[in-house]
Specification:
Radius of gyration: 18 Å
Strand content: under 5%
Number of strands: 2
Order of helices and strands: HHHHEEHHHHHH
Number of domains: 1
Length: 265
């Protein structure tokens, strides 16, 4: 029964990505930790692979429609890739398992990862609930290279720490800093997420034991979900589903904070 629930969640991740173009990957780590029982650090590694592979499949449809700006993807993805790879290879292993204690309270690496992840969930949920205030531009793309570099590094570090794609940060950056139309920004974002997540996952190979059989099965369900979601997007309103999913993610984020803190006290 637990496996059925977990793989159903994997399909939900893909469906959400297929319909709203982002946000679904934020569910990957909670499903791996709370349903399949993985520890947070390995779960973030698995999430990088699942999110990367699923985003790659999702970006293929945008490539066929010529809705991917490869130059912008490269400018954004290079610093993001370097940041996520460095985070997985050097920063994560350098964090001690027990960071500090306060009386009987122990602040561990696993707790830090889950709390940071929950905070990212709250930020992601707010971005989905609120109506977008940034506007598309009809002008040609004029790269704000310093800001794109900084944004790529920030997103890369966050992706490396918590294993989420960060589409809710990437899409506004592409619209505001690279002047891409929204549909082009979504397609380009998926390609960026795919590249940095899969390449970042390389930083974990040899460092973390990987159950390839489980990982590939889980990814298969997620890919099936994004294919279904892409089809359903023709009939389901993105504008209505996105805020509803945002509220769900908000509740999940609050739940994770409460659960993790209560277990540590």
């Amino acid at each position: 029964m637990t496996e059925i629930l977990g793989y159903g969640g994997a399909i939900l991740i893909g469906v959400t990505l297929g319909i709203i173009g982002g946000g679904g990957s934020i569910l990957t780590v909670p499903i791996l930790v709370y349903i399949f029982g993985l520890l947070p650090v390995p779960a973030t590694a698995y999430s990088l692979f699942v999110v990367g592979l699923t985003a790659l499949v999702g970006s293929a449809a945008y490539m066929k429609k010529e809705l991917v700006d490869y130059k912008t993807a490269a400018v954004f993805a290079v610093p993001a890739f370097i940041a996520v790879f460095s985070t997985r290879r050097f920063i994560i292993p350098a964090i001690p398992d027990l960071i500090f204690t306060f009386g009987e309270f122990e602040f561990t690496k696993n707790l830090a990862v889950m709390l940071l992840f929950a905070i990212l969930m709250l930020a992601s949920s707010i971005s989905m609930i609120k109506k977008s205030k940034f506007k598309e531009s009809d002008s040609e793309a004029k790269f704000n290279y310093p800001m794109i570099f900084i944004e790529g590094v920030v997103v890369g570090v966050l992706t490396g720490l918590v294993g989420a794609g960060g589409g809710f940060l990437i899409i506004p950056a592409l619209v505001l800093l690279a002047k891409l139309p929204m549909k082009m920004a979504v397609g380009t974002s998926l390609l960026i997420i795919a590249a940095k997540s899969l390449l970042g996952f390389i930083g974990d190979i040899g460092e973390i034991p990987i159950d390839w059989s489980f990982l590939l099965i889980f990814s298969t369900f997620t890919i099936a979900g994004i294919i279904a979601g892409s089809y359903l997007s023709k009939f389901i309103s993105n504008a209505k589903l996105k805020p509803a999913f945002g509220w769900f993610v908000l509740v999940m984020g609050i739940y994770i904070i409460g659960k993790e803190l209560s277990q540590s006290l």
